[in-house]
Amino acid sequence: MNQQRIIITQYNPMYAEQTVDMWRDSKEHAIGQKEIHSFENHVYFLNHILPEQFQIDLALIDEKVVGMIAYNEREISQLYIHIDYQRIGIGQKLLDKVKAQSSGRLTLYTFEVNENAQRFYEKHGFKIIGRGHENEENLPDIQYEWIYKKTVNN
Fold first, then answer.
1. Is the dihedral of CA 150, 105, 101, 95 positive or negative?
2. Where are the domains of the chain?
3. What is the pLDDT of residue 4?
4. Is beta strand 105-111 parallel, antiparallel or unpaired with respect to 141-147?
5. Across the chain, how many H-helices and E-strands are there?
6. Which of 14, 24, 92, 96 is most exposed by smallest CB count within 10 Å?
7. Main-chain dihedrals φ then ψ at residue 75, nearest 5 degrees
8. What residue stretches are annotated with the N-acetyltransferase domain (predicted)?
């Protein structure tokens, strides 16, 4: 996969249905559980609720949504990569952008059953700071934190 073809861009509602399709597939694949919200409600959430507190960026390859991240300077709310495009650096590209725009500290939650996400976050410097928070899916989850550490080389 040619890295040059991955475009990171601010979310545009013209990508709503593609984004929700990808998000639902990726989440279902990760946690082995069907999405509890209807497709229409999910689109509404993406277009009207999520943007109130979070910036949303998409990863596109040839106008196809292959990833999405919703974040602010302190927290990552959502990060999903298309199941056919995982492990080629898209998540890292999205994460690097968010880290660069962060306050120097980010928190996020991931499901305990999603071991791929745990490995990904730990590989990128996140540490576990909590467990067992409430979520709609009623699945145990893990809270992670990343803190910017200035290295000698920077």
1. positive
2. 3-147
3. 58
4. antiparallel
5. 5, 7
6. 14
7. -145, 145
8. 6-153
